[in-house]
Amino acid sequence: MRKLFAFVALLVTVSVSEASVREIVYNLGVDPQTIDPAMNHALDGAVVDVNIFDGLIRYDFSGNPEPGCAESWDVSPDGLTWTFHLRENLRWSDGQPLTASHFRDGFLRLIDAKTGAPYASLGLFIKNAERFYGGKCESSDVGLTATDDRTLVVELEHVNPLMLWYMAFNAFYPARTDIVSQNPRTWSAKPETLISNGPFRLESWKHGAGGEIVIARNPHYWDAENVKIDRVRLVFIGDANTALAAFRAGRVDFMTTVPSLMRPLLLKRGEAVSVPQYYVAFCELNVTRKPFDDVRVRRALSLAVDRKVITDKIILGGLKPATGAIMDGIPGRTDSEDFRTEGGGLIPERADVEEARRLLAEAGYPGGEGFPEITLKYASSGNRGKTFPEVLQGMWKTALGIKVNLVGEEWKVFLSTKRKGDFDAAISAWVMDFPDAAGLLENYTTGSPGNDVGYSNPSFDALMKKAGTELDRARRTDLLHDAERILVDDMPIIPLYFGSDAVMKSERVRGVCQFPTGLVIFRGAEVD
After folding, report:
1. Residue 391, H or E segment
2. Domains of the chain
3. C-alpha pair distances (Å), 190 with each of 178, 186, 187, 213
């Protein structure tokens, strides 16, 4: 999911914990737009979801799939039928029994067009799911059958090489239809109605800047005996410097981002530790609007950007210029190979101003003459603020002579703006939901809910569709390389840099897991 990631400080603030309560305080950075598992498509919401819900499969402490609510599963020889066997005596956080039917309901909710789930396309591998989404069949025709309370049979339209990863993802969590149906849009915003099944439950949610989400240990969780802390406070501090001050004052337990200007020094001193992340920052271009419907304009804007200047002078501390759409660290044809290394450099690190000007002139705007004023939108609550948009604004003005207006929007508004396609260009980023190149590429297939830019290319779609059913890893990876080259050539998004993450952790905290997908897991945490 997964995930759209604003330039937001995923830091930590704090209040002094009661001596009797084993508590960790983590700064989520922003008040999530939603923590409804089917509706969430942002990292901040996913961090909450992964700690209060549990799928058929969950993530182990290395970030790989392991048995969750399903203790085992069987797969038919053709790979098209998966039978999941649930654990005994599973319970929701209110103590009610959790059954296979609840997982069926959660899956159906994902692929029901009336839900409007941003990750609905992920569920279309299920038999008849696409027909159901399009209103061409009933839910009873979908390949989801709860044969009894502890058995869920999932029939596939085609084989899914990422099946276990999908089953651990928030979009495939179970649903309590009796609760969701009463308030489909608001049920997840209040502790009284957000009934979950994970290691923690929602205790309170104070909305808005300066607010917080508190999650408390769920005694009904099937693995509750191994959850060692009582609660986690996820606070909303959007300013990285404020969060750092709180950490240094002893009111912060765990930070996952540090102020960019201080990052090199903090890493050098050992106060912060760099960790890998499947992260790419980019600029989205709305190809349904002029002048971005012209690929020459899009390429010119990309070539006018000096990515090396951005990573060496503007955003400091272990970042790398983006040389493709897929970041470093994603496995390639084998586990020992890297997708980005295999694919090579598709985008130059340094600006090619001469070629950028030539392309813009060829598109009818020599020296920027006649080029309309465009608006670049960004999340104003991000830890980089207006600095990064101003850098792009300056590079495009200097190299191409075009005028760019900057508009900052509050995080929730920004997400809504992007989903509605109400922008010319937008600063955004993506953290992979899975260690697989398709996680980002599939967003740009025609009609995908994640395709905010309105991009469509039949050749790209065909490659992605074929990759989705290819079980031979090497052949599948080659298809994804071909798809990436088309996407970069068409440039509906301008990749800017690949990111790593930085962690600052209190000495009293142990066992908090942070994965390259950006997820942070607290169920194995302990505090002194």
Report:
1. helix 387-400
2. 3-196+506-527 (3.90.76.10), 276-501 (3.10.105.10)
3. 16, 8, 6, 10
> Sign (positive/negative) of CA torsion 189, 190, 191, 195?
negative
Rounded to a whole number of angstroms, the CA Rg of the chain reads: 23
- Listed residue (204, 158, 159, 152) closest to 174, CA to CA: 152
Give the distance from CA 387 to its chain's centroid: 23
Question: How far is 164 from 161, CA to CA, in rounded Å?
Answer: 8
Dump pLDDT digits (tens) for 207-261: 988 899 999 999 999 999 999 999 999 999 888 888 899 889 888 899 887 887 7
Where do we find the tokens 């090489």?
161
**Tally of CA atoms within 13 A in the half-sphere of 502 that contains its CB:** 25
pTM, 2 dp: 0.86
How far apart (Å, rounded) are the C-alpha atoms in residues 175 and 54? 11
Pairing of strands 151-155, 81-86: antiparallel
Quick: pLDDT tens for 338-374. 999 999 999 999 999 999 999 999 999 999 999 999 9
Is it true that the peptide bond before 161 is cis, omega within 30 degrees of 0?
no
CA 207 – CA 33 distance, rounded (Å): 10
Half-sphere exposure of 369 (CA within 13 A, CB side): 6
Cα 520–chain centre separation: 12
Name residue, tokens 């993530």. 59
Give the C-alpha separation, 58 to 41, whole Å: 18
Measure the CA–CA gap between 449 and 116, rounded to whole angstroms.
9
Please state, in angstroms and as integers, the Cα–Cα distance from residue 272 to each residue in 26, 107, 260, 355, following that order: 15, 40, 12, 40
Tell me if residue 143 falls in helix, strand or coil: coil
Q: How far apart are CA 429 and CA 499, in angstroms?
A: 10
What residues form DSSP beta bridges with 81? Answer: 155
